[in-house]
Amino acid sequence: MIRSKKSVEFIVFAPPYNPNIGGFVVLHQLCHFLNEIGRTCHLVPWFSSAEISPIDDVAVASRVFEQRESIRRDSYRVNPDLNTPLYRRPWRGIAKRNDVVVVYPEVVFGNPLRARNVARWLLHNPGFHTKHCYYVPGEVHFRYSDAYKPLPLPWIEVSDLILTVLRTPWEQYKEPPVGSPREGTAYIIRKGAGKPLVHDVNDSIQIDGMSHAEISDVFRQVKTFISYDTYTLFSALAVVAGADSVVIPDAGVSVDEWTPDPEKRAGIAYGFDDLERARATRNQLLVNMKSTERETENMVKMFADYWETRISGAHSNASAELSTIPDWSLGANLTSNPSSGQSTPT
């Protein structure tokens, strides 16, 4: 690991760690990697900011804020194997600091910590999960994948840096010895809820809600894994474990819209008629995953360097402009009709 102490402090606004929810995992991993390369990063437990309105009495809002700070922090779950300390100082002080960058995923409503420097991490297309989004002037948006489509808002800057954080549990999903028997299918619904089931579900194993240990056992036994969620790392992990992997296309979404870069489609079939290509490119998928893992540290370092430079004044004066925003978050509540895009790990 490259270590270099810098002055900017990072805060990741994240839900409690849950190994079965990819978005939660990568938020904690980002904090971990920032600390591992020598930056300072803490977690602040996620709370809902949409419930606090600008028309609320300030004293009422303050009590809610302080109560959430105490309750959510005390019961907060982290991964003991990751370097993810909690932010133990008063959260109110964050709004007064020019040297703090707060990272919010795209589903967070506004700027609940009132940070002067906001990095919005698009772990999916804005509005996909919530059907609306509320962003504040001066934010800088970073995409988890280049397949994502940020909103064209004049007061938001979109960085060219793709911030993909990936740690693959290779050993857990290790392919069984050659010749090991395989039979049947497994499938997942997740973000594909509502799509018609196009395969025979009799005796097919549904992995929704299973642990990684249970899923890896399934993947090493079945011939084919079928995902109705078009963007989940489980499609790739099935290939790691030696199974065929098929994504059921969304209606009206072409293969180029699903994943624009042909190289990033390696190993995973977009529909059953694409299986031959997927099998032929299986090894390329494994190479791509290992390459992304190696690049993760470099991507995180570039992300940190960007903010060091921006806050030092070499970039635009967006941070200074954001500091003039009043105590309540401003933004645009936009109804979104998101198109497809790659999702976070699981």
Question: How would you summarize what this structure contains?
Answer:
By secondary structure, the chain is α/β, with parallel strands linked by helices. It has eight helices and 13 strands. The protein folds into two domains: 9-167 and 294-335, no CATH class; 185-288, no CATH class.
Report on the structure:
This protein is an alpha/beta fold. The chain folds into 2 domains: about 10-165 and about 295-335, no CATH class; about 185-290, no CATH class. Helices cover about 25% and strands about 15% of the residues. A 6-stranded parallel beta sheet has the order 2-1-3-4-6-7. A 5-stranded parallel beta sheet has the order 9-8-10-11-12. A two-stranded antiparallel sheet has the order 5-13. Helix 5 links the parallel strand 11 (about 245) and strand 12 (about 270). The longest helix is centred in the last third of the chain and has 31 residues, at about 280-310. The two termini are about 25 Å apart.
Which helices and strands, and how do they pair?
Elements: E1 9-14, H1 22-36, E2 40-45, H2 58-74, E3 100-105, E4 118-122, E5 132-135, E6 140-143, E7 157-162, E8 185-188, E9 205-206, H3 212-219, E10 224-227, H4 233-240, E11 244-247, H5 255-258, E12 269-270, H6 275-280, H7 282-312, H8 318-322, E13 332-335
Parallel strand pairs: 1-2, 1-3, 3-4, 4-6, 6-7, 8-9, 8-10, 10-11, 11-12
Antiparallel strand pairs: 5-13
